[in-house]
Amino acid sequence: MSTRTSKPVRAGQYAALLCYLVFLAFPFLWLISTAFKPAPELGSLHPTWIPEHPTLDNFRQAFDEQPLLRAAANSLIAALSAGVIAVLIATPMAYVMARRRSRLTTAATGWVVVSQAFPFVLLIIPLFLVLKHLHLINTLWGLIMVYVVWALPFALWMLVGYVRAVPPELEEAAAVDGAGRLRTLVSVTAPLLAPGIVATALFAFITAWNEFFFALVLLKTPEKQTLPVVLTHFLGAEGASDLGPLAAAAFLATLPSLVLFAVIQRRITGGMLAGAVKS
Predict the structure, then answer these.
(1) 59 near 248, Cβ under 8 Å?
(2) pTM to 2 decimals?
(3) What sign does the dihedral 68-70-73-75 (CA atoms) show?
(4) Which 3 state secondary structure label does DSSP give 192?
(5) 3-state SS assignment for residue 235
(6) Of 269, 152, 255, 144, whose CA–CA distance to 203 is shortest?
(7) What is the DSSP letter of 186?
(8) Can you list the residues of the chain whose pLDDT is less than 50?
């Protein structure tokens, strides 16, 4: 009976998952279709999924109209720097919070979660004043600092969970074998935390790569602007948009995140404790 009842439930789960995947994939597939459509098809009253006359003119026009390569380089520098710095800061903090449990660490964990509820509007004015005092307005380093601060709470919260999943008995066994604290962290704990560190760095990278509001406010000159800000330049007066080049540029802007995730997805989904002995 249990097998019979589980089959409809499993089928329903797969159906729900398929609907969710279609829901997620529809905007991206439509974006790709729009990027390769010529202007007459974009203005057609009967849109089609597959372009009848695919063209690369939208991509050429997008590069001619806006400095996409320079903006992509700015976004890449900011996103990679924010991801690396956030992980370097969050990893030792997460280890201490996970291994030294007290009222202080519990309160700190709660504050980390609560801080994610603060809207951007409440933070932008204090951040602007601080960065202005430090002479970091209209600089990538100022934007990187903001991205690190913004990604750090959630990165810390993620890594605390990964550290707590590592059995303390493994570290105790290493200590019994004569390994010091630093050797234990480097040889035992760090390899087991690798999937969590990679996942956290990916989160920080994608957050910084896609961020728009802070970059719009803090970066003034066109040479410093990131890719999400430059994409808005395809919008004309009264909401009119150059749809073909905009779709082409937006499609190119999504590729780094997709490629990065495809490259390291095995690292993320790999078992954290593969090869570890049971406690």
Answers:
(1) yes
(2) 0.80
(3) negative
(4) helix
(5) strand
(6) 152
(7) I
(8) 1-3, 271-279
